[in-house]
Amino acid sequence: MAAFSFLFYTHITLKIRFAIAVSILCLGYLALEYYNGRAQMADFRVYYDAANALLKGDTVYGQAFGVSSGFYKYSPFACIPFIPLALLPYSTASVLYFVLITATIIFFSFRVSNYLSHRWNISAHTLIAPIVTGIFLIDHLERELHLGNVNLFLLVLLFESYFALRSHMNYKAGILYGLVLLFKPHFVLIFPYLLWKRKIKAIASTIISVGIGILLPTILVGWKTNEYLLAQWFTAMGDHNIALQYSPNTLYGLLNSLLPDAIAGKWMIAAVLSIVALAFVAFMIRNDAKDNTRWSGEIRYTEYFLLIALVPNLVHTDTEHFLWTWPMLALSIHHVIYRKDSSRKIRLILLSLAFIPFALNSPDLVGTRLQALFDEGGIGIANLLILAASIWDVSNEKNID
């Protein structure tokens, strides 16, 4: 009993030390941002100013907030969670938001690591895996702190939605998923997966929660104004997008860069989506067969988070959205560290190739020329290598999840 108590105490102490270390690093980074005059949090400024505009009846869409590119392009509902911060002075609100992101980084590091440690019977008494994962994600976490975006919060909601689905709390899962869609409709890619898995209650809950979210701003601005805001939201989303075949980190953009101009075109979007869909269905059927089940309704970790990680490779987004690969990256890193099987070298090679463009995408580290190369396709390729390593893990698993 005494030995167990010692291990438990050591485990808790390690987590506290990890939390303190991350807090010091993040707050130190904030101090450097202020010292160098870079503490802009440009994305948070957009949310903050848009929430103020909604409250005051000013223009929400079509004007730049903070910086020239700071256009609000999210649903009217997405302003509402920022209203409490919008009531505070910006200097106070931005620091509070920075602290909230820092706390979420610590929380999610533990959340993912604890799940993988428990699910794959890996020792949870060390924090090597979350530390290595954090190093791998350092560029994306730095961008999240610098810009003040919502990508990490959306990933947490999707992770909790996954847990709710696994626990058969389908209504809760649908509400959480609906909240995510109100911020980033990109995640509609998960919808066909839920249909395939016959999660009808979760789908119904998602539709209802999105409907409520669309109507909720009516309480603040009235019916006609909300209709107008919704129309502007759809326009803003259309203005943000470009022809997908020219989006450099998407599968279409990567393929387009390899083909002659005479061959490349819009046709590849439908072709690539069809191939990805068929490959994903084959992946699910293979998992069912390996589990000796057929058309399983179980929501599997590797299937669910593979879809989430693929979003930046399938839709036009900024490079910081590759943060959504975190759960799949953590899976491979856990296996590399704790599983010394015959496929370990393959995982190491794939992750090593992905590390440089994925983790070191900073002009201060690699120079502006190489960073531009990473931004224009390098990160997209690195993400695919990470996912390949994760899928390789699944192919060597006895128990599919």
Helix and strand arrangement:
Blueprint: H1 2-35, H2 42-56, H3 83-86, H4 90-119, H5 128-136, H6 138-147, H7 151-166, H8 170-183, H9 190-196, H10 200-215, H11 218-221, H12 223-240, H13 251-258, H14 267-290, H15 301-314, H16 326-338, H17 344-359, H18 363-366, H19 368-395
Would you mind describing this structure in some detail?
This protein is globular. 37% of the residues are buried. The chain is mostly helical and 401 residues long. The chain has helices at residues 2-35, 42-56, 83-86, 90-119, 128-136, 138-147, 151-166, 170-183, 190-196, 200-215, 218-221, 223-240, 251-258, 267-290, 301-314, 326-338, 344-359, 363-366, 368-395. The chain is built from 19 helices and no strands.
Number of helices: 19
Major sheet details: none
Strand content: under 5%
Q: Give helix % range.
A: over 70%
Order of helices and strands: HHHHHHHHHHHHHHHHHHH
Spans of at least 5 consecutive residues with low confidence: 1-8
